[in-house]
Amino acid sequence: MIRISIKRIKRIVLHIGLLTFLPLSALAQQTVEGTSYYLPRTAIKYTLLIERVSTQPGELCMYADRFLKKSDVATKPVTSYRILTIKISTEGVADTTKLFTPAIDAKHSISSIKVDDESGILLAVNADPIRIEKPLPFVAAEKPLPLNPRDYMSQEILAAGSSAKMAELIAQEIYDIRESKSQLNKGQADFMPKDGEQMRIMLNNLNTQEAALLQMFEGVTDRDTTETVITFIPDKSVSKQVLFRFSKYFGLVEADDLSGEPYYISIDDLHKQAQNTAIAETGKKGKDDAGIYANLPGKIRATLYHNEKMMMESELYAAQFGVTAPLDNELFGKKLQTSLIYHPATGHVETIQTEILKK
User: Fold this and answer.
1) Residue partners of 153: CB distance under 8 A and separation at least 6
2) Beta-strand (E) ranges in the chain?
3) Backbone phi, then psi, for 194, in 5-degree steps?
4) Radius of gyration over every alpha carbon of the chain, rounded to an integer in angstroms
5) FRET partner for 170 with CA separation of 20 to 30 A, picked from 95, 139, 187, 229?
6) Which of 133-137, 146-150, 210-214, 316-320 has the lowest mean pLDDT?
7) CA distance 90 to 187
């Protein structure tokens, strides 16, 4: 039997308390008495915010250059996409090769096991997991109500006998609105507002009228932003493997769709392993195996490239690049009550507390 002293227990607690880990994700858990649990593999998640911009041409777009000196307006429907942000995070995925059963009996001081109720990944022993709220999913801002240009047209404009005449009258109205705004800002308007609030209201109304009438030439542009998560589970070092492709015209496309530009991922094994002095010195099962195991994850570097340009580089711990070993059985004997909290993405023991049991 491996003997463990109170001094060693203190060293275990101190050593684990000094380790630095990635933030915990939100956890759903259930207490399981004598039920098996999994340790995780580590999945890398890239969260993309993608903006879609769709422009419908204006009814009078062909007159934009003639009356407003605008030569770059859309003359046919156009849709484009772009990536606004990319964020990286990690998540635990049950490793079916790492299934263990704790010994909850009179010989061991294991009173509860808590696992994720979806994946079955071990979260805590004789303790409650640390709960950190999961980031809320992205919600796009509410769009303003669309403007109807005809609501801002005079009777003369509406009665125009041709599209060319209508375009001329609308353009003149736009220039008159701009002149009114200029005079207000200079304090030269015939009817100046009495205070700043009245000034703000008048300028807002003029801006709305101008925007509505400009739609007849420039068209309407609609913007939508969506969130997409791409998950990658590395099992070895890789060099510039296609993670996804992205097209300006079609958005996110399949990795083998050459219409999109490639985004590559590289994984480098840094050959640095997290340490844990609570792991049994032999690294093997003891005579009275408590069935409590932990991962000693390995450190990796994940690099994302767009074509040949490096987009982001992150160092993180991944369970599958390390080893798995049993915890020292003395921690769960009759003399000690040990509480463990695991990192759900790596299966490493994040915190440990021990209490000497009364005889």
Assistant:
1) 170, 173, 213
2) 29-32, 37-56, 78-100, 113-116, 122-125, 220-232, 238-247, 251-253, 261-273, 293-306, 309-326, 336-342, 349-356
3) -80, -30
4) 32
5) 187
6) 133-137
7) 58
Express each pLDDT in 250-263 by its tens digit: 999 988 899 999 99
* Residue 309: strand, helix, or coil: strand
- Which residues partner with 221 through β-bridges? 55
DSSP state, residue 239:
E
pLDDT-derived band of residue 18, with 50, 70 and 90 as boundaries? very low
Answer for the pair 35, 121: CB distance below 8 angstroms, yes or no.
Answer: no
Distance CA(47)–CA(84), nearest Å, equals: 11
pLDDT score, position 192: 82
| CA 9 – CA 279 distance, rounded (Å) | 12
Q: Cα torsion for 337, 343, 345, 348, to the nearest 10°?
A: -70
> Can you say whether the dihedral through the CA atoms of 124, 99, 118, 303 is positive or negative?
positive
Bridge-partner residues for 52, per DSSP? Answer: 81, 224
User: In the 8-state DSSP scheme, what is residue 118?
Assistant: T
Structure token pair of residue 31: 């207490």
Let me know: does 111 contact 128? Beta carbons within 8 Å: no
Neighbours of 113 (CB within 10 A): 26
What DSSP string describes 3-64?
Answer: ---HHHHHHHHHHHHT---PPPPP--EEEESS--EEEEEEEEEEEEEEEEEEEEPPTTGGGH
Q: Residue 286: is its pLDDT beyond 60?
A: no
